[in-house]
Amino acid sequence: TNCITVILLTLQTNILTELKNWKLNLIQHHKLQMRQEKEKHAAHVKQLQNEMENLKELLHTYEISISRKDEVITNLTQAFEKQKERVELMRKFTLWRIQHVKTKQEEYANNIAERHFRTALMKKVWAAWRSANEIRWKDKVARACQLRAEDVCVQLTNDYEAKIAELTATLEQRKAEILRLHNERDQYEDTMKKAFMRGVCALNLEAMTMFQSK
Description:
- The chain is mainly alpha-helical.
- It has a domain at 51-169.
- It is built from 3 helices and no strands.
- It has helices spanning 2-77, 84-137, 139-213.
- The model has no long low-confidence stretch (mean pLDDT 79).
- Its main location: cytoplasm.
């Protein structure tokens, strides 16, 4: 009887040791996955930040270009006082559009940061709940964790694919917006050139009339 008891105790100790080792391995594996996901997310956020910085630099370049064009417009408006109000309204509208684009970019970045925070918080809550109930449920929890991990991986894959699609659509939208602004600028320059040429022609005609009258 004592021998059987010792064997049972030894077997129980070995089983508990295996369970403990299995628990530690599972926790380490989970930590590794969490670290990898954090690294991926950090790289993704950094890429987004770089893209936003590039867009900001591009917008800044357009602001400088528009500012220079405003100086040219100001010089031209001295000969065309009747068009001064129209030129001023156009400049204010362009600046408002640029500010509007910046505001949308900031709102988009804040939304991404908030969603990332919620996702990280949900992962932490899930990890804490699983650790608290892991010993009691043993094999059942292990099976549930495995299924949950697969679901989470699938969900994360779907979420990242959706984010990539959303970012791609947003980038295309920003490119279209920049192209539209560029076309508006070219159209505006062409309008000003035509107006300037009309003014020059009018001045030439008036000068010719004066010379003929003399």
